[in-house]
Amino acid sequence: MSDHLGGRLPLLRPADLDDEQRQFYDLLTRVVVPEAAAGGFTAQLADGRFIGPFNALLRAPRIALGLGGWTREITQAGLAEDVRQAVILTVGSAWNAAYEIDAHTAAARVAGLPEAAITALVEGTAPTGLSADADLAHRLTAGLLTDHGVPDALYAEAIGRFGEPGVLAILCLIGQYQTISSILVCFQVPVPERSAPRTADQLTS
After folding, report:
1. How many C-beta atoms lie closer than 10 Å to residue 70's C-beta?
2. Would you give per-residue pLDDT tens digits along the chain (205 residues)?
3. Distance of CA 47 to the CA centre of its chain
4. Quick check: 175 and 141 in contact, CB under 8 A?
5. Could you give the C-alpha distances from 21 to 8, 41, 61, in angstroms and in order?
6. I want to staple 120 with a disulfide (CB 3.0 to 4.6 A). Which of 82, 87, 127, 203 is the partner?
7. pTM score, two decimals?
C-alpha cells in the first residue's frame, strides 16, 4: 500500500483537485516528474498522486506556484549541479529530512559526486573528494546552518569564488530547501521503497 507515503497527510487524488490545485498539479507533471526521472527519485505514483513535499504543497496552490517561480529562478542562476547537490544534501542532513536526503542522494550520484562524499554529507561530517566549488558551497551552507554565521575568511573565499550573485544564489538555494525540509519534517513524509540502491552508472544509463 502507498497511502502512508503522505505521512500525516492523505495523498490527494487527481480527480479530487480543484481548479487552482489542478494548475499546480499540471505544473508538477510538466516540470517535476521529468526532473525526478532524470535524478533517479520518485515524485509521482503510477496512479497520478504526488508524494514528497508536493502532496503537501498541493493544499496551498497559490503559495506553491509562487514558490515554483522562485525555485525556477534559483535553478537557472548558473550554479553547477554538483554545487547544488552538495548544498541540498547539507540542508537535508541538518534537518534529517528523509525524503529529501533519499531523493538528492540519487540526484547527487547523477551529478557525479563521489559515493564517500555523499555519505559524509548525509551523515553531517566533512566530505572529501568534492570539487573545490562544491566543497566551498558545503562549508558555507554548514556554517550558516550550524553556527548561524559566516566568518570573514569564509565570506571572502565564497565571494572570490562565486561572486556576489553566486553567493546569493547559494543562500536562496539554502532557503528553498529549508522550506522543503520543514514541510517534510512537519508532515513526517517517508521515503518510498525501492528495490535496491542504484549506482551512478545505472542512473545515467
Report:
1. 13
2. 688 999 999 999 999 999 999 999 999 999 999 999 988 899 999 999 999 999 999 999 999 999 999 999 999 999 999 999 999 999 999 999 999 999 999 999 999 999 999 999 999 999 999 999 999 999 999 999 999 999 999 999 999 999 999 999 999 999 999 999 999 999 999 999 763 344 444 444 3
3. 23
4. no
5. 19, 23, 5
6. 127
7. 0.90
